[in-house]
Write a sequence for this structure.
């Protein structure tokens, strides 16, 4: 009986220690990761990505790919500026915000090029 109580106590202590460690880990995430993992940031980024991909598809139907790649991100710049506006309310210097927004833009542009080329390759095969 003493062994079971001791074992139960040890298990409870271990579980509480692990839970405290997980909570501490969540709190020690860098502020930039806390912000970029937030649902609001991800919603804005998803909206911007969707806009760029849709515009690039539409533009690529009626113009050269270079033109589509150039103007699709411009057509969705308002959504990108919403991300910047959200970040300005945070604890970051404007230089850091500009770099983060630029990083989002570059990532979406890479996704756009890959998306359009994938669609063009699929269309050429059919």
């Amino acid at each position: 009986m003493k062994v079971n109580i001791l074992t139960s106590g040890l298990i409870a202590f271990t579980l509480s220690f692990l839970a405290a460690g997980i909570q501490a880990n969540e709190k020690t995430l860098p502020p930039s990761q806390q912000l970029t993992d937030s649902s609001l940031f991800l919603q804005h980024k998803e909206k911007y990505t969707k806009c760029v991909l849709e515009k690039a598809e539409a533009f690529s139907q009626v113009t050269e790919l270079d033109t589509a790649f150039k103007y699709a991100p411009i057509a969705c710049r308002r959504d990108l500026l919403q991300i910047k506006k959200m970040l300005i309310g945070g604890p970051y210097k404007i230089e850091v915000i500009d770099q983060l927004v630029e990083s989002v833009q570059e990532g979406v542009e890479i996704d756009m090029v890959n998306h359009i080329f994938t669609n063009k390759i699929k269309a050429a095969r059919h």
About this structure: The mean pLDDT is 83. Residues 94-125 form the longest helix (32 residues).
